[in-house]
Model the fold of this input.
Amino acid sequence: LTMKNKGFTLTEMVVVVAIIVLLISIGIPAYLSSVKRAEIRNVANGLCDLISTLYEYEDKELNYDKYFLKINNYIVPDARGERYLTIQLISYRNNSENVMKEIKSKIAELESDIIVSGAGTVYTYVYYDNEGVLWRFAGGSPANRSVQARSLNTNKEIIVKARNTSRGYQKKVIIMALPPGSVKIDN
Done:
């Protein structure tokens, strides 16, 4: 009786390892791309929801100085020093902000003429007035809005895209002037 060694040859092992490396080199970028796409979709859908909710609260209560969207487009670091896109629906009373809903993302960023950026800018606030016109202002608090507020009485676009990229997958959130509070997403 002779025993044959059963196993793999070196050539077979090299082929299997090469196939695994090839699959990983294709799979990881595809996975990371799908994660970015999902995050951008989630932020765009969440932004639409927050804008609609903002209008609903103001319209239901007929109180146009209580609810705001507060947007931090990677300007202000959090307590750990990390920077995020943060979009919050807040209620403002007695010089105090209460966060009602929040979206946070390290992947997505907003690009729009609605978003105020530059030296001295802390946050962008957005709200509706009693005629359904969207307004925005920049500053540290809604208490500063009367000086800096700017009417946005036409359709406005906010592009949600991957941070620090000029091309690639993005979603366009369109805030409609009429009817007030209506929002849609375009590709």
